[in-house]
Amino acid sequence: MNERFTIGGHVSPATTRAADGMKRRAWTVAEIEAMQAAGIIGDDERFELIGGEVVPMQAKVGRHEMVKVELNRHLQRTIAEALTAAQETTLRLDEHNFVEPDFCVYPRAIFPGDLRGYHVLLAIEVADSSLAYDLGRKIGVYAAFGVPEVWGIDANALVTHVHRRLGAGSYEEISAAGLAETLAALRAPSVAICLEGFGLAPL
Questions:
Q1: Same domain, 165 and 194
Q2: Cα–Cα nearest to 175, from 186, 166, 162, 192
Q3: CA-derived radius of gyration, the chain
Q4: Is residue 52 part of a domain?
C-alpha cells in the first residue's frame, strides 16, 4: 500500500511497505522515465513498476524465447487488420504502475504511447521460472486496471492459464487449456492459438 505523509508542510514522496515491514520509497512512472532519459537507468535494464516498486524481470531462457518466437509468428500472420499484437510494449497503467506483457492485443487505431489498461483486449504472458509472479501478483494488477482477459502460458508444460470475466478485483473465470486445445480471445476472436501447432513438446 502506498502512503504519503507531511514534513514541515511538504508532502513527502509516496512509500510502500515491503514484506519485512520497512517502508520503501514509491517511484512514479514519470520519475523512472526521467532516470532512463538521463542515463541513470540503462536502456538494457528490464523491469516493471508495480505499486511504485521496481520489479526486475528475469533473464529469458531459450525455452521462453522459443515459445514467444512461434507465438509472435502466428499472431502476426492471423490477427485481424484492425488489431495490433505488440510484443513487449510498455503498458502504463497509472502514476505508480507499468508492466510489459509479452504480447498486448489492442485496437490498431490506438497509438502505443497512449495505450492504457482499458484499451487492452488481451494480454499474454509467456513464463517459465517467473510463472508464480505472472499468475499471482501480476494477474491482480491486470484485473485492477481493467484488462478483460489474460493468458499465462507455461513455456515448459505448454499449458495456458486463462483468466477471463472481470469481477470485483479479480477474474471470475479461471481455467487451464492443454497443448491440443484451441483458445480464442473473447474480445478479439481472430486471436486464436493451439500450442500443439507450434511444433513444441512439453518438458
A1: yes
A2: 162
A3: 18
A4: yes
Q: Are residues 158 and 113 in the same domain?
A: yes
Which strands make up the sheet holding 91-94, listed edge to edge? 53-56, 47-50, 97-99, 91-94
Count, residues in the chain = 203
Q: What percent of the chain is helix, strand and coil (3-state, nearest 5)?
A: 25, 35, 45
| Continuous segment of H or E residues that includes residue 85 | strand 83-87
**pTM of the predicted structure, to 2 decimals:** 0.79
Q: Are residues 66 and 52 in the same domain?
A: no
Q: Which domain holds residue 167?
A: 62-198
DSSP-based three-state secondary structure for 188: coil
Question: 71-112, pLDDT tens digit by residue?
Answer: 999 999 999 999 999 999 889 888 888 888 999 999 999 998
Domain boundary among 17, 39, 56: 56
Amino acid at the residue 103: F
State how far the Cα of 150 lies from the Cα of 66, in Å rounded to an integer. Answer: 20
* CATH code of the domain in which 66 resides: 3.90.1570.10
**Single-letter code of the amino acid located at 26:** A
Number of H helices, E strands in the chain: 4, 16
Contact 163, 152 (CB under 8 A): yes
Long-range contacts of 74-77 (CB under 8 A, 24+ apart): 74/193, 74/197, 74/198, 75/103, 75/105, 75/191, 75/193
What's the CA dihedral at 24, 26, 32, 35 to 10 degrees? -50
User: What residues of the chain score a pLDDT lower than 70?
Assistant: 1-23, 58-61
Provide the 3-class DSSP secondary structure of residue 121.
coil
